[in-house]
Amino acid sequence: MSPEAPTLLSYRQHTRDILVLSLPVVAGQIGMTLLGQTDALMIGQLGHVYLSAANLANSIFYILTVVCFGITYAVSSLVSESVGSGEPHRAGLFLRQGLWAGLAVAAITTALGYFSADLLPLMGQPPADVALAAPFLRIIALSTPFMVVFIVYKQYADGLSRTVPGMTITMGMVVLNVVLNWLFIEGRWGFPRMELEGAGWATFLSRLLGMLAFMGYVHGTRAFNGYGGESAAAVSAAEKQFYRWRPDFAAIRKILSLGLPMGFQFFFEVAAFAGVAIIIGWQQDASVARAAHQIALGVVSFTFMVVMGLSTGASVRVGTFKGMGDRGNLLRAGLSGLGLSVAFMGTATVLILVFRHRIGYLYGIEEPEVLRLVSGLMLIVALFEILDGIQGTASGLLRGLQDVRFATGLTFVAYWIVSLPLSYWLALPLGWGVYGAWTAFIFSLAIVAVGLTARFWYLAKRV
């Protein structure tokens, strides 16, 4: 703590500062969601079986790759703390070592994703879904390294409070994905009709070009000068470049010690939703129910990505104040972030309730049974939106404090000990179907929201 008491900013100022940081991140996060949602919207035109198959493949893909996300999120936390503690030169170190760590894990998950397509027939899923999902899964699995590198660069820029580039490049990827889907899915302008595989190749190319664009921006922009963290051992230009990019195992261990628990925290939550997709595949009319599940998941993902954007801004502010040892502003920044998320999710709840009967039509779905299930699922979604906003933001605040193990343990209990068994019991033995599978999330989200918020308050008081 500095000898002079820091200026305590008002909640209004904290809210404004978080919004300035977060709005470009929100746009970027929405863009990341739209990359998947544009696939779903355009695949839905082919029929509900294609939509169900895409959900099956994406569920497996994200189960396997979500740990990589935790490693990338560690980069922004470490970068923001470096800036707040007066060591901005260390920011570049965490970018480079984040790439080493992320790509090492990505190599494993790419192989697992590619070869897991051969295991889909063993999961008791509808044969039509499996036949469509397997090649799609192989294609998107091969794009994993591109996605990881892109997110590492994005988290680096976000940690430096430069959030506009991520928004801009991500939105460009969305536009490119829509165009490529239009060309590949139904075969236009001389391209062969590839249907679901075409959507996979569109995603692959969008992630590749997005990665190259972000790398070019960071390394070609003067605004990022001064964050190099060159090794003191470098004595010539050639040696300096070598020492800058060779693995620094101390930094990698720090990234992994923070990033792996965060990755498993994401894994437990994503795997719960993916597990529900598998459970739904065991009931009658599985393709119909899973198509409705995919649409509901799209709505939840969209609203949650806004929360993730807000939590990123709050996390950066909390990490900066942690580096400064400023307890008062750290607390106010965290509470302001929570308030913003609750306000947004409350608004989203009202909109979901008002338009719940129309949401299914956005995906080109015409089957009455799918539309009926989607409308019912929206009632359940509306019940947990605010809880989802609180837990998502509180998780970000703890990332800013670099406290991740508690959240990892709590999410394991909430989603795997409570949610998944309850989803199975409500959906199949009790006969509630997809409604029962989703009802279980109300309980798990409540546990996580209360637990993480209490943990943030406890730790913030002790900074």
Features:
463 residues; mainly alpha; 14 helices; globular
Uncertain ranges = 229-243
Strand content: under 5%
- Mean pLDDT equals 82
Give the biggest sheet: none
The residue fraction in helices comes out at over 70%
Q: Number of helical runs?
A: 14
What is the N-to-C order of secondary-structure elements (H for helix, E for strand)? HHHHHHHHHHHHHH
> What value does the Rg take, in angstroms?
22 Å
From the N-terminal CA to the C-terminal CA, the straight-line distance is: 9 Å
In total, how many beta strands?
A: 0
Describe this structure in words.
- By secondary structure, the chain is mainly α.
- The protein has helices at 11-43, 48-84, 91-116, 127-142, 144-159, 164-184, 195-219, 237-245, 249-280, 286-324, 327-355, 368-400, 405-427, 433-460.
- Helix 2 packs antiparallel against helix 3 and helix 12 runs parallel beside helix 14.
- The N and C termini lie close together (9 Å).
- The model is unreliable at 229-243 (pLDDT under 50).
